[in-house]
TrEMBL record:
Domain of life of the native organism: Bacteria
Protein name as it appears in the record: Transposase
Molecular functions per Gene Ontology: transposase activity
Residue ranges occupied by any Transposase IS30-like HTH domain in the UniProt entry: 3-43
Upper taxonomic lineage: Bacteria, Pseudomonadati, Planctomycetota, Planctomycetia, Pirellulales
Amino acid sequence: MAHLTFHQRVVISVMQRDGKKQKEIAEAIEVSPSTVSRELARNHTTGKRYHPLHAERRANFLKKRPSVISKLEDPEHFEVVSEKLALNWSPEQISGYQSRYAAKPMTS
């Protein structure tokens, strides 16, 4: 999945302001119409206006956030997983053990 560039976001803004349809915008920036639709839905401001700078800043902020925090950062989980791996347990066995016996079950 490729991310939109700032230039593509500016084109979306200009073409939307000029009254172009999402399909026309998508063809101009060579992406799927659903990509344009999602971009406009996610990044419009009050009054349904789309601002490319706002959208770019939001995208950069979201890129920097970790999407998943490792469960192994929890010392309790790390210890249990380490012990079970040393006993040659599979990930499925460890997860099953965690869900049955641990206070905080580990899920993916």
